[in-house]
Every structure is written in structure tokens, then in C-alpha cells.
Amino acid sequence: TFLDKPEIDLTSYKKKQGSQSILLDYSRKEVNEMQILKQADVVMLLYLFPDLFSKDVILDNLHYYEQHTIHDSSLSKAIHAIVAARCGEITIAYKFFKEACLIDLGPNPKSSDEGIHAASLGAIWLAIVYGFANITFKKDRLALNPELPAEWEEIQFLIQYRGTKLSISLTKNEINITKVCGPELIVEIGHEEYLLTQDINVNL
């Protein structure tokens, strides 16, 4: 019945993410009876099962539900960043990414007085690796289809896949993958397959 519920302007509450400020104006019961989401819900489904839906369906749902999400969960913005990046919406994805980083790394010096948001920090890492590097796992291979934000020159990270440890470096024009240890494996970049025995270098 979500789509039948009334809508309100969430602009002011979005600016105060993580504070549950909406509960100063409405009770939880009232919030539950409006088109208001605390965090990524349908968007989380699109993140977990990206191949079940077309890009158009994913984008329509991303935009619709984000308009109705106040992001009071520290995990919400990073998941939105991943889904947006996978759809090629890099500017929007980077905006979500930066806002996710502000939870512990923002101007509020007391945001982590009771402890850092460890799960959120993990989600930020996921936004880099599964969002901008756009790594996915297929039946017998690891796939990359990266697109970096305009503000970035390069990203580097380590990842382990099926017992093989990889060092990956990405720029806007080049992908370098080094097999640190473990068995050889197939890597898919774009629609091309590569057998990784030690190192591969691909120009984009």
C-alpha cells in the first residue's frame, strides 16, 4: 500500500540525515502511514540483485524511492551511490558517496563520540569497489566495468576472489590488475575476457 499513502516535502529532513528529526514533527505511527523511508529498501534489493532488472527499471526505482528516503540510516547513502554508479549516473553517485563520508568525516567533531559507524565505513568501501570500479562476480569470473568520478584520477585496492588475491589500479584510461597470489582466473573487462596468470593491463 506504499504508493497509496500521502506524500510530504522531505527536503528539510534530508538535510538532517541521521538525526531522526522527522520524529519532532510526526509520530512513528504517522511516519509509517506516509511515503517516507528511513533508508535504502527497494534500492538495497537493486544493489543485491542487479541482474534481475533492466537499467531503466533500476533508474526509475532509484529516483522514485530516493525522493521518499530521508537517509536516517548511516548505510543508506552508500547503497544509493553504488546503484547510481552502476547505472552510469556518476555525478549523482559521487554526491551520495561524499554525503556518506560526512557521517564520520564531516564537520561535526562529535559525530563519532559514541563510536565510529563501522558498517557505514564498510559501505563506503563497497561504493568504491562495487560502484565506481563496478566489480561484479559471475559464475566463473570476476568482471569490471569502471567509471571514475570526474574529481578522481586513480583508485587502488586489494580484493580476494576464489582464493586469488588481486591488486587493482584504475584510472580513467587504464586498468592494471596484478595477481598477488593464488590460482589463475578469468577476468572480464567490458565484454572482453582475459586470463589472469600474473598481470594484465587494459587501455579503456
Keywords:
single chain, alpha+beta, elongated, 8 strands, 204 residues, four-stranded antiparallel sheet, Maltose phosphorylase, domain 3, 7 helices, 2 domains
Explained architecture:
The protein has 204 residues and is of the alpha+beta class. It has 2 domains: 1-132, no CATH class; 135-204, Maltose phosphorylase, domain 3. It contains 7 helices and 8 strands. The strands form 2 sheets. It has a 4-stranded mixed sheet with strand order 1-2-6-7. A 4-stranded antiparallel sheet has the order 3-4-5-8, with no helix packed on it. A hairpin with a 3-residue loop joins strand 1 and strand 2. The longest helix is centred in the middle third of the chain and has 16 residues, at 90-105. The protein starts with 10 loop residues before the first helix and ends with a strand.
Low-pLDDT residue intervals, each spanning 5 or more residues: none
The overall average pLDDT, rounded, is 92
Count of folded domains = 2
Task: Tally the beta strands.
Answer: 8
Lateral arrangement of strands in the main beta sheet: 1-2-6-7
Helix content: 25-40%
Class by helix and strand content? alpha+beta
Largest sheet: 4 strands, mixed
The share of residues in extended strands comes to: 15-25%
Rg, rounded, reads 19 Å
Question: How many helical elements?
Answer: 7
How far apart lie the N and C ends?
A: 46 Å
Structural shape: elongated
User: Could you state the order of secondary-structure elements as H and E?
Assistant: HHHHHHHEEEEEEEE
